[in-house]
Amino acid sequence: MLLCDCGGPDKAEKAELVPVGPHAFEYHVETDQFYSPNLEGGAERTRLQWLAADVSYAKLCAGDFEVLSRQVIFQYWAPLGYPVDEIIYRGRCRL
Question: What is the DSSP string of the chain?
Fold first, then answer.
């Protein structure tokens, strides 16, 4: 099930919110040359903003939520020579 507050073409193509229980979710995001998997910098802030917006839009959590884990999985090398990774955030609603 895809739930997405598709705020722009980057987000629509890169992010997927997947409920995995009544109060838990996974957020799958693909990286590229502009959105590296690094924790530091604007790309991570942007991904976390997307996550917050999508959780709110989907009305998945009545209040706040927390990210429990973050996993980066290499997918492939893009034709332009940069790595494409999938980042999976696992989280739950704070009750």
Answer: --B----SHHHHHHEEEEEEETTEEEEEEE--SSS-S-SSSHHHHHHHHHHHHHHHHTT--SS-EEEEEEEEEEEEE-TTS-EEEEEEEEEEE--
Token representation of residue 77: 């090398």
Can you tell me which residue has the tokens 């429990």?
A: 68
Most confident of 9-13, 21-25, 87-91: 87-91
Give the contacts of 42 (CB within 8 A, at least 6 positions apart). none
- pLDDT tens-digit series, residues 66-88: 999 999 999 999 999 999 999 99
Domain boundaries, the chain: 9-93
Spatial separation of the C-alpha atoms in residues 81 and 26, rounded to whole Å? 28
CA distance 53 to 44: 14
- What pLDDT, in 10s, does the model give residues 39-52? 988 999 999 999 99
